[in-house]
Amino acid sequence: MARTKKELIEKALFAALKERKKISGDHYKPFCLFDFIEKQDVQLKFTDISSLEGIYSKEPGPLILLNSLRPHGRQYFNCAHEYGHHVFEHGIELDEIIDSNSHFDPEEFLVDTFAGFLLMPKSAIRRAFNIRNIRFDEFNPVEFYKIASNIGVGYQTILFHLFRSLRLIEKSLYKKLSSVKVQEIKKEILGQSFPGELIYVDENWEGRPIDIQVNDILAIEGSYKIECNNVKRIDEVNGISIYKGVNTGIGRIRLQMQDKVHFLRVSRHQYVGINKYKHLETEI
C-alpha cells in the first residue's frame, strides 16, 4: 500500500495513464470525460445541492453525482476526482466543500492527483502547447485559457498542474499567471466584463466535443461554419466571433482552415438529471 506522497503520485500516474489507453483514437489528445465514464458503465448524474462537490457510490451503482451549480471546469475536475474513487475501488465517498487547511487525507490526495494526470498528462499538455506554438515560459494568460477550455478544466487548475505536478512552468511564472483573474481574461477576449461561462474555441481545438450550456458564451477563432441553430451570433471582437447558447441540442462547427468538424452540444443552464439526456432538444 502506498504511504508516502511520492508513492501516491506514482500510483495515481500509473492508473491515469492506464485509463487513458482506453480512449478510442489518440489518447494524448483532450477527450470528453463524461462520455468516457459512461462507456465504463458508471452512471453520471447532476444535482443542485449547493454544499456538494461530488459523490461516488460503488453500491448500488457505480454512480457519480456532480453539482450542476459549479463552474464547468470545476465540474469536470470533480468528475475526474470521483472517477478516481471508482478506479481505486473505494466505497461510498461524499465530497463536500471543506476547509483547505484540513488534515492530509491519503485517499483524497490519491484521487485528486489521479484526476490531474487523467485530464492533463504531460503528453497531452506538451501537444496542446506545441500545436499552438506556445512556450512554457511565456506570460500569455489568454493562450493558457484557450488550452484550459479545450481540455475542459479551469484556468487556475491547469496552472497549478503545470507548476506543481508536471513542473513545466517556473514558480515565478506560475505566480504571475495565477495572479491574473479569470474575469480579466474574459474581458480581454470579449472587450467587456462577463460573469458567466466563456468557452474559447481556437483553430487547434481537438479531441472532444464543444460542450456549453444555454446562456454560455462561445468565442470562435478563425474561419468556420456553424451547422446548427443552438447558438446565436451576438458580436465580433478583434476578429473573434462571439456566440451565445440559446437552445439545447447537438449541432456541428466546421473549422474551415484545417477542415475540422466538431460536435457542438448545448445543454440546459445548470442541468439537473442524467448525463446521457443532457443535450436532448427542448424548447427553452
Automatic annotation (TrEMBL):
Signal peptide start and end residues: none
Pfam families, A to Z: Peptidase_M78
Protein name per its UniProtKB record: ImmA/IrrE family metallo-endopeptidase
Residue ranges of every copy of the IrrE N-terminal-like domain listed in the record: 58-161
